[in-house]
Specification:
Layout: H1 3-16, H2 23-34, H3 41-58, H4 60-73, H5 82-111, H6 115-135, H7 147-158, H8 167-177, H9 182-211, H10 217-245, H11 248-265
């Protein structure tokens, strides 16, 4: 991999992992558009690790509070708090994609990676995002969610296995559908990304180890660092701006991207 390829793919991953525009679609399309060979499993693991480190660093204070309350709540007589309940909700919301990913991994990796599929999901779920951004009541914060809300968001997240859907986009859509504010839906989505990326990254890492593939450690380190920086800045700016700008800019981008993909496919 040359330096430009590493830079492009790492920045694309860092930005699109948390924006509602689909990182998987962009990682598939970027090599196609620039004529690169597929970057391989090792580099995918590296840039996802960078994104994971970014979101855990950004929410480090909340995560420490959640972890402390969660472990204390496991002892008899210790009270459940909002933080400990949030951990249980995130675990519950992660279970559907763990099960579906195991069942449909072959279908996702091979049969659904076409331009037509990406174009269709980019447009369809972009419109759904727009609908609930406009029609959702947006009166609740993330700590008002219960197990039904978490399970609903988790089931919606399963759709992110289809390239072009956007994990962050579909979980934000589900959150706003349930009455969460844009900011609350975004925060829940970002927190939910931690176990989800950790799970998927672990599976890919295991596959990489068993395959005994040669690894370009310089490319991996550079990709992880660039992905970390771009993802951290993305989360920071997104949470600052989303309450004011809404989801419309991302919806417009998705519609334009979907239209371009259809034009290419034709």
């Amino acid at each position: 991999m040359d330096s430009l390829q590493i830079f492009l793919l790492a920045i694309v991953q860092g930005l699109t992992e948390f924006l509602p525009i689909s990182s998987s679609a962009h990682l598939i399309l970027t090599p196609m558009l620039f004529g690169y060979q597929d970057q391989g499993l090792a580099f995918d693991v590296a840039v996802h690790l960078g994104s994971l480190l970014a979101v855990t660093t950004f929410f480090r204070h909340e995560l420490l509070d959640m972890a402390g309350d969660f472990f204390r709540s496991l002892f008899r007589g210790a009270p459940q708090t909002q933080n400990s309940q949030m951990v249980w909700l995130l675990i519950l919301a992660t279970l559907p994609i763990m099960i579906a990913g195991e069942l449909f991994i072959s279908l996702v990796e091979h049969d659904l990676r076409s331009i037509w599929v990406i174009a269709a999901t980019t447009i369809l779920f972009g419109l759904l995002l727009f609908w609930y951004d406009r029609k959702g009541t947006q009166l609740r914060d993330e700590y008002s969610t219960d197990w039904r809300d978490a399970l609903t968001i988790g089931l919606f997240q399963v759709l992110a296995l289809i390239p072009g859907t956007s994990r962050s986009g579909i979980t934000m859509t589900a959150g706003m559908m349930l009455g969460l504010t844009r900011e609350a839906a975004s925060r829940f989505s970002f927190l939910l990304s931690i176990p989800t990326i950790l799970m998927s990254g672990s599976l890919v890492t295991l596959e990489l180890i068993t395959a005994r593939t040669a690894v370009d450690w310089t490319a991996m380190a550079s990709g992880a660092l660039l992905s970390f920086v771009s993802a951290y800045l993305c989360i920071h700016l997104f949470l600052q701006l989303i309450g004011r700008i809404g989801m419309l800019p991302f919806v417009i981008y998705r519609l334009l991207l979907g239209g371009v993909l259809i034009w290419i496919a034709l």
